[in-house]
């Protein structure tokens, strides 16, 4: 059965006007078109709804039984329509984003405040989560999108690269092994110039660390086993304390720690890293997503030299 609200409205118009001519005018359809619609309705219900003569239109017993049902259907749909419209508009203005904690702490506050000024009706929900949780919630539909480094394909999820970042070397200013950097515009360090000391690193199975290890091996740099951590924030803290140097993506480069740490862009070659936005495939894109990504791009562009002084231009 494929009856629509239009069928019920047309049926009620005939009942209320007691004729097809005026009913057709009320529902803005031709009289032959209205007759065909009623024939289709009767066919789907397997009964006659009207007895028609040249002078009158009368309801059959089945038609009389249908009147209160049709009226209830029309009333309920018309009552819920504005409610659904408001929900739809709210949904269009709401954005739920999953973000790595360190990115949430350094970049998202500026994005949030910019959107409060430029998009005051945007309802932005920032969820600071580990990457696996971001992936899971994007796939389940709990989040509209996620941000982070996703080098591997994720089932049912599309990826869009927003930025390209580099890797940087970070060490304590009081470290006895201080690396010899070079470069006039910015401190630089070649991969083959990395000091032969134990590094503070992520766990070897983690994607970022796999990329670093692969690149070090390609450059012929031997590794010295050091301390293993699970979070980028821990790498920075340990390196700043003098436990050992570390290698991190430039988008997590700390700000305001110049007295404690020294950083340098790793070069020859520069290793770029894609920072991506992920969404569930087939999901309707929230209307405010482009405003959000534009604000994100502006924050990165405006503060790139201060937040990521060694990031590559994307």
UniProtKB/TrEMBL annotation:
<comment type="similarity">
    <text>Belongs to the LysR transcriptional regulatory family.</text>
</comment>
<dbReference type="Pfam" id="PF00126">
    <property type="entry name" value="HTH_1"/>
</dbReference>
<dbReference type="Pfam" id="PF03466">
    <property type="entry name" value="LysR_substrate"/>
</dbReference>
<dbReference type="InterPro" id="IPR050950">
    <property type="entry name" value="HTH-type_LysR_regulators"/>
</dbReference>
<dbReference type="InterPro" id="IPR036388">
    <property type="entry name" value="WH-like_DNA-bd_sf"/>
</dbReference>
<dbReference type="GO" id="GO:0003700">
    <property type="term" value="F:DNA-binding transcription factor activity"/>
</dbReference>
<dbReference type="InterPro" id="IPR000847">
    <property type="entry name" value="LysR_HTH_N"/>
</dbReference>
<keyword id="KW-0238">DNA-binding</keyword>
<feature type="domain" description="HTH lysR-type">
    <location>
        <begin position="3"/>
        <end position="60"/>
    </location>
</feature>
<keyword id="KW-0805">Transcription regulation</keyword>
<dbReference type="InterPro" id="IPR005119">
    <property type="entry name" value="LysR_subst-bd"/>
</dbReference>
<dbReference type="GO" id="GO:0003677">
    <property type="term" value="F:DNA binding"/>
</dbReference>
<dbReference type="GO" id="GO:0005829">
    <property type="term" value="C:cytosol"/>
</dbReference>
<keyword id="KW-0804">Transcription</keyword>
<dbReference type="InterPro" id="IPR036390">
    <property type="entry name" value="WH_DNA-bd_sf"/>
</dbReference>
<protein>
    <recommendedName>
        <fullName>HTH lysR-type domain-containing protein</fullName>
    </recommendedName>
</protein>
